[in-house]
Amino acid sequence: MSEENISQRNQFELAKHANAVKRFENLEKLKLIDRLETLQKIKKSNDRLEIKKFMFQLQQRMFDAPDQSKTNFREYAQRSVEKLKRDSKLSRSPDSRQTTAAEKPTEIKEIEVKPFKV
Description:
Blueprint (H helix, E strand, L loop, with lengths): L1 H63 L2 H24 L3 H10 L15
């Protein structure tokens, strides 16, 4: 009877050990997942930082440019927005698109572009 008791104890100890190993492995997996999520958050924040840097450089370049290029850029941006609005309205009715394109000659202005300073 004592032998059966010992074998049951061994099985119980073995099961406890196996459960402890599983818990440890799960904990390690959770730690790895947490590390990966942290790395992804860091990467996203770095990407956002790069975008912010790029936008800041673009703004600086626009403000540092001579007044003429600012005017050209503003006109170009305004025309682009108007064209997008017009195209979105015209896309609903294809007939009006053809008449509008024939009525208005397209005018192209040069825009001064400076290289980025990094």
